Amino acid sequence: MSEKYDWVLASSHLFAHHIKPRGPSHDAPKLVYAYTPARYIWTPEMDKRGSHAAARLGSALLRPIDRRRAHEATSVAGISEFVKKRIEATWDRPAVVVYPPVETTLLQSVSDWRTELSGQELALLETLPTNFILGASRFIPYKRLDLVIEAGEYAGIPVVLAGSGPESRRLEAQGEAASVPVFIVDNPSSAMLYALYQAAAVFVFPPVEDFGIMPVEAMALGTPVVANMLGGSAETVVEGVSGIHFAGLEGDRIGEAIVGALTLSSADCRRESARFSRESFNINFSAWMGSALNGGSSATPGAHAVARSNARDLNADR
User: Fold this and answer.
1) Do 12 and 61 form a contact (C-beta atoms < 8 A)?
2) Fewest 10 Å CB contacts: which of 68, 110, 203, 274?
3) pLDDT of residue 54
4) Are 151 and 128 in contact (CB under 8 A)?
């Protein structure tokens, strides 16, 4: 870095926090906003890329470097308590929590997302049952959408799955054999997804995620959530208020949680989602930076550099 910067911010899910200011900025404080320490290095059981022999060998070499670079930071913030604990366990340093932004205000600015649909989308929505549970994500194995179908069978409620991916055919086959109707909405637009949230009786979210944006989106639109008690959804979904948690990946347990979630208040769900709004994020992120840079006062812009891990999108954690 040939320019003089007052501070450096690394937005990191892999190695952006390895950035090392040099030249006139060599002593600039480095702040790290961490989505997670690289899973395939530190927690390979959560990332199949870390299961290969070459990856295991490389991880042994990278871990001390990764930890050392994290220790160079003036302050580290993780996106959830779940991630904070992983930071403390792997990087061996303290961290704070700043939840990422979810566009709850935008979602709630439209009272009925059906009005934002194309004619074809609206016609598709009208073919769905009036009462259904919703599962939505990329159709990949670890999202466990198969459990949404099993839970729907247990609860006796039709199931709608929204998304696309390599698991499509397997989920279609499971749906055809299910004891309740199962509908798949392929690759929905954002407006269609939001309309599905609003129409669903319950949103079911089986995976263990570092944060999990989709449960908060569903809550923002008044839909209670049934979510894994591990991961970020253990923090975002308030038990008995905005949703019900389940332990273990069994369809009957999830089905029991669905029955409980059906009684929850839409107004409570919407209210709880506000904790994760972009407005809340801006306040909390600024407070973190201010505390790290100025001993607690509001962060001042100054000249700064920002480093980002490539190809990271908050929505990838949906």
Assistant:
1) no
2) 68
3) 54
4) no
- pLDDT tens, position by position, 175-198: 999 999 999 999 999 999 999 999
> Which token pair is 96?
């704070």
Residue 198 tokens read as: 């609003």
- Degrees (nearest 5) of the Cα angle 308, 314, 318? 150
Reduce the secondary structure of the chain to three states and give it as a string. CCCCCCEEEEEECCCHHHCCCCHHHCCCCEEEEECCCCHHHHCHHHCHHHHCHHHHHHHHHHHHHHHHHHHCCCEEEECCHHHHHHHHHHCCCCCEECCCCECHHHHHCCCCHHHHCCHHHHHHHHCCCCCCEEEECCCCHHHCCHHHHHHHHHHCCCEEEEECCCCHHHHHHHHHHCCCCEEEEECCCHHHHHHHHHHCCEEEECCCCCCCHHHHHHHHCCCCEEEECCCCHHHHCCECCCEEEECCCCHHHHHHHHHHHCCCCHHHHHHHHHHHEHHHHHHHHHHHHHHHHHCCCCCCCCCEEEEECCCCCHHHHC
Sort 51 into a burial class: Cβ within 10 Å, 0-12 / 13-18 / 19+: exposed
Distances in whole angstroms, Cα of residue 134 to Cα of each of 97, 150, 174, 206: 29, 12, 16, 11
- Over 70: is that where the pLDDT of 33 sits? yes
